[in-house]
Write a structure and sequence with these properties.
The strands form 7 sheets. A 5-stranded antiparallel sheet has the order 1-27-26-25-24, with no helix packed on it. Strands 9, 10, 12, 13 and 15 form a 5-stranded mixed sheet that branches. Strands 4-3-2-28 form a 4-stranded antiparallel sheet, with no helix packed on it. The chain has helices spanning 5-8, 83-86, 131-135, 170-173, 338-343; strands spanning 12-16, 25-30, 35-40, 45-50, 55-61, 67-72, 89-94, 100-105, 110-117, 120-128, 139-141, 152-160, 163-169, 181-186, 189-190, 193-198, 204-208, 213-217, 224-228, 237-241, 247-251, 265-269, 276-280, 295-298, 304-308, 313-317, 323-328, 351-357. By secondary structure, the chain is mainly beta. The chain is built from 5 helices and 28 strands. Helix content is 6%, strand content 44%.
Amino acid sequence: MDQNIIRRRGVGTQGLDEKTALKGYTLIAPLTSKNVYLIDNNGKVAHQWDLPHRVGRHARLLPNGNLAVGMKDPDAPAPFLFFNKYGGGIYQELDPEGKVVNEHRDPLGHHDCYFAGDGHFYYAGLQALTKEQAAALPGGVPGTEAPDGKVYSDTIREVKDGKLVWEWKVAEKLDPKVFPLQHHYPREHWPLINAIYPMADGNILASMRSVSAVVIIEKSTGDIIWHLDSTVVAQQHCANELPNGNILIFDNGAFRHRESFQWSRAIEVDRATKKIVWQWHAPSKEAFYTPFMGSVQRLPNGNTLLCESAFGRVVEINTDGEMCWEYVCPYFSQYPEKEARDFFPSNSNALFRAYKYAPEEIPWLQ
């Protein structure tokens, strides 16, 4: 009997409503692998990229048809244990044949990297707080600083053609009294930026997991001009802007405000009012939940794609709020890094994110 519960329950396409699902291709990048796959609605691989290093979070297709992917730098230092799992460090743009078009490296890069194209990247990095700054940071589990005794904070870096052209530093711009670490979270990393999204108005949207907050940063000043707090979101991921200006968020639900159990959802928030104007969760809420990672994407036909990341499950929700496609990643392996494997010893099919594309968005595939 297969002891891997996820695999035993079934992998590949588990359900498809051909009438309402987007006829397209979904991009997945299994976190324990060195491969990126483009699959059709039946789960068949339409294209594959082979990478030199393990996937470091996710991949997506750029408007020019190239692949943007983050990889785990095997030689990068790990300031704290979990960095072995969610660190990145190597960011590449590859053409369909796998040729490197652009590359940027930062050993302290982690989580999200937004590729704007033409050698233009936004990504999250690390910077240690001073002793005084760390002492002034409230919250978190006492005694869980990094092994060197430090608390690491985030930066957002914008790079063009290999040159740093803009940087935002949590240590300088985020008020720890307004954004304290949640009490159950380790003190090694604050506030754990897991999504960066350049907005249509030129400002920067960011998701901060360990403080359960989504913010908008005014790029010209570095000031926080919009803040969705932990009464709405809970250790969320993948905040992105919709064409109508609303904010789409994968809300994980870990330690949700005034909730006694945990469940995940996707929400669309009106930027002006901060009201939830659309949401989806499983009819039985507990049937769809990932405690970490997760993604949400609004599709060209109005459907919404969600990734239940820890379990490698991707679902598409149609405009009637019904599931019209379900897929479970069939690629299982252990993390190659011993430190990550000690925390997650089983064979994993986890995906940080998944993205789906209409055929006309991938003309080279035809």
